[in-house]
Amino acid sequence: MAYRDFTLKTIREKFGISNEVKNLFEQIEEIAISKDLQEDLALARGLPIRSEKAKSELIVMPILIELMKRNEKFFTIYSGDYLNVDKEKGLSGECDFILSKNVGTFEINTPILTIVEAKKNDVEIGIPQCAAQMLGAKYYNEEAGQTIDKIYGCVTTADNWIFLKLEGDKLVIDNRKYYLGKIEELIGVFQFIIDYYKGKLK
Description:
Elements: H1 8-15, E1 18-22, H2 35-45, H3 52-70, E2 75-79, E3 97-101, E4 111-117, H4 127-143, E5 150-156, E6 160-167, E7 170-174, E8 178-179, H5 183-198
Parallel strand pairs: 1-7, 4-5
Antiparallel strand pairs: 2-3, 3-4, 5-6, 6-7, 6-8
């Protein structure tokens, strides 16, 4: 079993993590994007983006790089890395993206947010996998002696984005989606999450 094999039911049964759907964010401030990201996304719109790999390289990664530069490299980005925590419990496997506190080391340090690219262009399909990766990040941090009370996650088709939060034994799935067409609002949500960790991780 690996992250991709989980369902919300198995997460509840194996780890006691219940879930609910509600609004995660209120009064999100829209943030204007840089000229570089405007140009990157305009270029992407003119290309035949059909595969997950293309979406990852041409849409998702430029957005994450924009956030990294905006936050003076507070976090770093791991793409396609493995987060192997406990293979017997199924908490292992490849992650599309992991955002981690940047401490200048080669290995993953303090994962704060995981991002899953949804299969079949359906954002809801990726929710259980993302939830399992968030749980893996929680245990990974605890084993390293870094307890964080909230772990965030995100599932995206590149066009649609949905956020999740793991706190204690409760998984909260946002009841609204964010859209590439409203990129300023999407960046605002990411910045809200990053600001939370800036106050927690020194």
